[in-house]
Specification:
The structure holds three protein chains of three kinds.
Chain A (H helix, E strand, L loop, with lengths): L8 H35 L16 H8 L1 H32 L6 H9 L6 H12 L5 H7 L16 H26 L3 H9 L4 H12 L1 H17 L2 H6 L11 H11 L3 H30 L1
Helix pairs in contact in A: 1-13, 2-13, 3-7, 3-10, 4-7, 5-7, 7-10, 8-9, 10-13, 12-13
Chain B lengths: L3 E10 L2 E11 L4 E5 L6 H9 L6 E6 L2 E2 L10 E4 L11 H11 L4 H15 L14 H13 L5 E5 L7 H18 L2 E6 L2 H7 L2 E6 L2 E6 L1 H6 L4 H6 L6 E10 L2 E7 L5 E5 L12 E6 L4 E2 L11 E13 L3 E8 L2 E8 L9 E7 L4 E3 L6 E3 L1
Parallel strand pairs in B: 3-8, 3-9, 6-7, 7-8
Antiparallel strand pairs in B: 1-2, 1-4, 4-5, 9-10, 11-12, 11-14, 12-13, 14-20, 15-19, 16-17, 16-19, 17-18, 20-21
Chain C lengths: L13 H28 L4 H5 L13 H8 L11 H31 L5 H10 L6 H14 L5 H25 L3 H9 L4 H9 L4 H17 L2 H6 L7 H10 L7 H34 L3
Helix pairs in contact in C: 1-13, 3-13, 4-7, 4-10, 5-7, 7-10, 7-13, 10-13, 12-13
The chains are: A mainly alpha, B alpha+beta, C mainly alpha.
Chain lengths: 297, 370, 293
């Protein structure tokens, strides 16, 4: 409430209080998020190595970055990981949600079980799957001890397949959450529409394909945005599950950035890779947030 | 100088002016109703009186004190909201006395004030309940109690009855009117319901598009609407407005209106100044209750015209029967007694009380007679 | 959006239903599998695991791995077990959750009930902060914590988590308060209540459901964080996740899988407990925000 000059002091103070209360958070965010982003972006154009340094080198870090096979592998892995992770989580989440929406006995219990991995740390998830998939003691060993001695399952140690174990663990962790999003979407659909469609003679298959799933568009969009930003940020899981290996088979941009900045003392290149990660996420998030916030107005 | 003065007040959001130079002076003890369709600016105006919205230009004064920039709590006003706005976490008693508590009134005084108000509104048994446990009518009473307890200079009501069902709404309307008569308080009341406006008010401001279209007593508004908007907004069913041509018959101005078959009937005006409009098109406003059968025509009227027209639809509504016909190319409704002998498709002789007829300029849509 | 069960108009045949139950059950097993593996292997001697018995129930039941994980396992260079790190996490999580929730509540209140020009942009700026890849702030943050004298301290981590968590808490409270009737605020203003009185007396008593959401969310996120802990914690402020990772990744000596599993459960226990006890309030609170207050 902006007020004219004859407002008394207390009233005027009251009108400033809201902005005053908001300002610490805004200041924190402006400095620690946007200030830092600018700083990191700036570093990506400098010759920083172990410590930040301010010698301007232009695009050199970026051109170096794109020539690094390590970065190329990280990006390729990210492509495989993100596509499978988003795709499988979405399909699995939708499928389970549809199945769970059929007046299932014990739905609450099942939902709880599907959702609990979300509460765990990626480090815990990584540890559990790491040893379960370990050929020496895990699945392979167990099946062999059951008598199928030629059974082999060594993906986690195999350069060509290790990335799929990361997908498996990540899907295990988040698909239940995606299921919940779709379930909420399904429950939000007007039952009368479904009844009308049934009167029109639609089979269950057609009901889902033509009426229900098209109405879940917002849920698909939210799931995609959340999953894609999680995919790009995936870091802890890889550290705990494979440590980026074997070799560089499961390196992702997030682990690349971390090792170049803190272990290899190539801060400029690390900052350049972080900048690219930010741009990618921003390209997805900003249009989404823009649309969301505009709608609500 | 009135008790509450709204002096050349405007409201803009950015470049958009939503309220244009409103000028209303309310006397002490008056019951002013602001009525109009949604988006007409009536709630904005009320919020400006309350201090919940800033005044862009002009002045609002209560008891000659300028209120611009004064905090809502320091204007000595009270407000009853459409949703009642009862604090869900407080009991009825706490709801009623919250304002007094905030103004630093000591507890014994608060309790006494609460008891008085509770007695007045007959809500004593509810004082310890939470709003969630009350019916709509009870919440409405509590909301009024919260306003009354402050003993304010001006009461503001923002569509207080619109969340109630039809029957309760009528009861509460009477209740509010009684309360006003008993306490003699000054009230500004916003509604979109023209019946509420007519029954409650001592004066009505009809608003549309951010303008006060007409300010006057309910009778003035009803009988001599300033323009077509007011004429059709106030009254139910709405006033019939039909195109007509003014002519002179034996030196007397008449309105020539086409009937269902294209033939023309001449309805004589009561006002001689209509002679100036001879040969020109006008819009003729006729209220449904002034079109009746011969027997029901107003005996005191000195100007009953007759016309035979075909009945299109009849709608019996218990106390009345509404008859639709085509007049001047428009659907026109007549309000007949329930026992009138009317049938769809039949030709019927209607009596029109032209003393009550209103004429409008078709270009400006403003009233030209009476 | 409502997740509560309702009558669905869809009917399915018996064969189809059996199939559906089978699939659902299969996935129950899939989601339970790692938890089962962790639990059964945390209470058996190491030989049983290495001998190919990972999926079996323990033949010899022992709590030895738990005791070791908690108090004597080698973490980094010290044989302290995970217990000191557990307390480090608690000391970090409690203030960080409290501060970010309070800030979020106040921000949500201002952004919905005291709207001003460009408030949506301000909210967008705050919200976007939760979604950035945190790699972009690691370097300057390390420098800033050093400048502030908070490098390697628990309070440094609290600050970090507050900064990058306030977007979520603001989002939750803003959505919740957005459907809180504004007329109540106006009524309170006319009654003479000031900015904080309205917040304290009118809004806060009705904020229980969303406070639960905010607290659970923040607790889970901060407890489970690894990146910030690994980047900014000192030797005596390392959180549980970092310690667990050190325990599991240790390259020397025999790999004590049973101890690793016990440690993993210890690290998961607080968030799991919160999920089991309060998970239903979490869903309910979230829905309350999106449907109506």
């Amino acid at each position: 409430m902006a007020l004219s000059t004859n407002a008394d002091f207390k009233t005027r103070l009251q009108s400033w209080l809201p902005k005053l209360v908001l300002s610490p958070s805004l200041a924190l965010v402006l400095v620690f998020v946007y200030g830092f982003i600018l700083f990191s972006v700036y570093l990506s154009f400098t010759d920083s190595r172990l410590l930040p340094s301010f010698g301007w080198v232009g695009w050199e870090n970026y051109s170096k970055l794109w020539r690094l096979s390590h970065w190329e592998i990280s990006l390729k892995n990210m492509g495989v990981f993100a596509a499978l992770y988003i795709g499988i989580c979405t399909m699995l989440g939708l499928g389970l949600a549809i199945f769970l929406d059929q007046k299932i006995r014990g739905e609450g219990m099942i939902r709880t079980i599907y959702l609990y991995p979300m509460a765990l740390s990626f480090i815990v998830t990584g540890t559990a799957w790491k040893w379960f998939l370990d050929p020496g003691i895990g699945l392979e060993n167990v099946i062999q001890s059951w008598g199928w001695t030629s059974f082999e399952f060594d993906w986690i140690k195999n350069r060509d397949y290790a990335i799929y174990t990361v997908v498996l663990a990540a899907v295990w962790q988040t698909s239940g959450f995606v299921m919940a999003m779709f379930l909420a979407g399904l429950r939000g659909i007007d039952n009368e529409i479904l009844k009308a469609a049934q009167m029109d003679g639609a089979s269950n298959w057609n009901l889902y394909r033509r009426i229900i799933i098209p109405q879940l568009r917002p849920a698909f969009l939210s799931a995609f945005v959340i999953l894609s930003h999680l995919a790009i940020k995936t870091f802890d899981l890889v550290i705990a599950l494979t440590g980026g290996g074997p070799g560089r088979a499961t390196e992702l941009p997030a682990t690349f950035m971390y090792s170049y900045t803190f272990s290899r003392n190539q801060m400029g290149i690390g900052a350049a890779s972080a900048t690219i990660m930010l741009m990618t996420i921003a390209a997805i998030m900003i249009p989404y947030l823009y649309a969301e916030l505009r709608e609500k107005k | 100088m009135g008790f509450l003065d709204i002096d050349n007040t405007t409201k803009s959001y950015g470049a958009v002016e939503v309220l244009h130079k409103v000028d209303i002076s309310v006397q002490e003890g008056e019951f002013l109703v602001l009525v109009g369709p949604s988006g007409c600016g009536k709630s904005t105006l009320l919020n400006m009186i309350a201090g919940l919205e800033e005044i862009t230009s002009g002045e609002i004064r209560i008891k000659d004190n300028v209120m611009n920039g004064v905090h809502p709590s320091k204007r000595n006003i009270a407000m009853v909201f459409q949703s009642y706005a009862l604090y869900p976490n407080m009991t009825v008693g706490q709801n009623i006395t919250f304002g007094l508590e905030m103004h630093g009134t000591p507890k014994p005084e608060r309790d006494k004030a609460m008891k008085d108000v509770a007695q007045l509104l007959q809500i004593e048994p509810l004082l310890d309940r939470k709003p969630g446990a009350l019916s709509g009518g009870q919440r409405q009473r509590v909301a009024m109690g919260r306003a009354l307890v402050r003993n304010p200079d001006v009461f503001l009501f923002d569509e207080p009855l619109s969340n109630l069902d039809a029957k309760l709404r009528v009861d509460m309307r009477t209740e509010i009117k009684k309360l006003h008569q008993k306490l003699g308080t000054t009230i500004v009341y916003v509604t979109h319901d023209q019946i509420e406006a007519m029954t409650l008010s001592t004066r009505i401001a009809v608003m549309n598009g951010g303008y006060v279209q007409q300010l006057g007593t309910p009778q003035e508004i009803y009988d001599t609407p300033a323009n077509i908007f007011v004429a059709t907004f106030m009254g139910s069913p709405a006033m019939n407005v039909v195109p007509a041509k003014v002519a002179l018959e034996n030196g007397r101005p008449v309105a020539q209106v086409s009937l269902f078959d294209g033939s023309t009937v001449a309805l004589p005006f009561s006002q001689n100044n209509m002679s100036d409009w001879a040969g020109k098109d006008i819009l003729l406003g006729i209220r449904p209750e002034t079109i009746t059968d011969e027997d029901a025509a107003d005996r005191k009227s000195s100007n009953i015209a007759h016309m035979t027209n075909r009945i299109v639809v009849t709608e019996p509504a218990g106390s009345d029967t509404f008859v639709t016909m085509t007049l001047g190319g428009k659907d026109v409704i007549a309000r007949m007694r329930s026992d009138a002998d009317v049938h769809p498709g039949a030709d019927f002789m209607f009596a029109v009380n032209m003393e009550k007829a209103v004429a409008f300029d078709p270009k400006t849509e403003n009233r030209i007679a009476p | 959006m409502s997740i509560a069960t309702q009558d669905t108009a869809i009917r399915t045949g018996r064969v189809m239903r059996t199939l559906i139950y089978l699939v659902l059950l299969l996935f129950v097993l899939f989601y339970m599998l790692p938890l089962y593996v962790m639990v059964v292997n945390s209470v058996k001697p190491l030989e049983e695991i290495t001998g190919g018995g990972m999926m079996n129930l323990p033949q010899v039941f022992t709590l030895e791995p738990w005791a070791k994980a908690w108090s004597s396992a080698q973490i980094g260079v010290e044989p302290t077990g995970l217990s000191p790190y557990f307390w480090n996490s608690i000391k970090m999580v409690v203030p960080a959750v409290a501060i970010s929730t309070v800030l979020g509540a106040l921000n949500g209140y201002v952004l919905t009930k005291w709207r001003f020009k460009y408030d949506t942009i301000v909210f967008g700026l705050i919200l976007f902060a939760c979604f950035i890849p945190f790699q972009i702030v690691l370097i300057p943050m390390a420098k800033m914590l050093g400048l502030m004298g908070l490098a390697g301290t628990t309070w440094g981590l609290v600050l970090v988590h507050v900064v990058y968590g306030v977007g979520f808490t603001t989002l939750y409270f803003r959505n919740y308060y957005a459907v809180f009737p504004t007329e109540l605020i106006r009524a309170a203003q006319i009654d003479g209540a000031g900015f904080f009185q309205i917040f304290w007396r009118i809004l806060l008593p009705s904020s229980g459901p969303i406070a639960v959401v905010s607290i659970i969310w923040q607790f889970t996120n901060i407890w489970n964080d690894f990146l910030f802990g690994a980047s900014f914690a000192g030797a005596d402020s390392q959180p549980m996740t970092v310690a667990l990772n050190n325990l599991v990744q240790a390259s020397h000596g025999v790999k004590e899988y049973n101890v690793h599993f016990a440690g993993a459960i210890l690290a998961a226990l607080p968030t799991l407990l919160v999920y089991i006890v309060a998970g239903r309030y979490f869903v309910r609170g979230l829905m309350a925000g999106s449907v109506k207050g």
